[in-house]
Amino acid sequence: MASRPTAEFRAEAVRMALTTGLPRKQVAADLGIGFSTLSRWIQQDRRNPEKPSAQSDLEHEIAELRRENRLLREERDVLKKGHPVLRGAKQMRFAFITKNRDTLPINRLCQIMDVSPRGYRAFCNRPISAGQRKDMVVLAHIRDQFEQSLGSYGRPRMTEELKELGLDVGHRRVGRLMKENGIKVRRNKKFKATTDSNHSFNIAPNLLNRDFSAERPNQKWAGDISYVWTQEGWLYLAVILDLHSRRVIGWAVSSRMKRDLAIRALKMAIALRRPPKGCIHHTDRGSQYCSHDYQKLLRQHGFQVSMSGTGNCYDNAAVETFFKTIKAELLWQRSWPTRRSAELAIFEYVNGFYNPRRRHSALGWESPLAFERKAA
Question: What is the mean pLDDT of residues 347-374?
Answer without folding.
Answer: 90
